[in-house]
Predict the 3D structure of the following.
Amino acid sequence: MKVLDKDSAVFLDFDGTLVDIVGTPQAVVLPQGLLHTLTALHELLGGAIACISGRSYQDLTGWLGNTPLALVGSHGAELLGAAPPNSQLQDLATWCSRELQAWPSTLVETKSCGLALHWRQAPQAESKVRQLADQLLQALPEHRLCEGKKVLELVPRQSNKGIALQQLMQRPEFRGKRPIFVGDDYTDIPAMQAAQNLGGVALAVGDRVQDYAQGGFNGPAQVIDWLRRSAHALREEAEARSLP
Ligand SMILES: [Mg+2]
């Protein structure tokens, strides 16, 4: 994969793109040196780097809050800040947890703007989870259903990762640059399309969304290697420019 140049604006998904997907969302491990590489790229790209995740803004901040990256949570619904708490979502999450009591390995994740039902560790619960998701959809008409890897999620209808990318591209540090989006899952497709519509590139991690991309990586380790090589090349280029 060709390394980034200084006119790139980089948009990265988190799970499955920067970190390997593991049993539960809280069990992921940040690869060594990742925060350092992201921070270096932020400087070298003049601030044009963001992470757009399906995690809540608050959750994402726990992982990447020590970097200066622009952070977007909840599939675009939380642009650079957390949404206020929503008691209806809390109540529905409690109800779901009760309904799923027979499958203790399922996980009901309450998010600031939605709800996620995970069955990665309880494959036999899939049909019950699908049934609950349909019931949730009726209770939350302003939401739509998104499917990920062994997870069904209710997300706000009016936002997606593509809209978030377009909004970030209007900010001074991103404006006029060439957007490059990297993601691995279906909820990344709107952002992959938005990057291409703005004259940029979409890159896929794994094979799930490769039909929407112009290139890709086989896993997070390859993405990180590419980011690291890009930072190195950008640093050398900047140093060459500053020579008398
Ligand atoms: Mg992902």
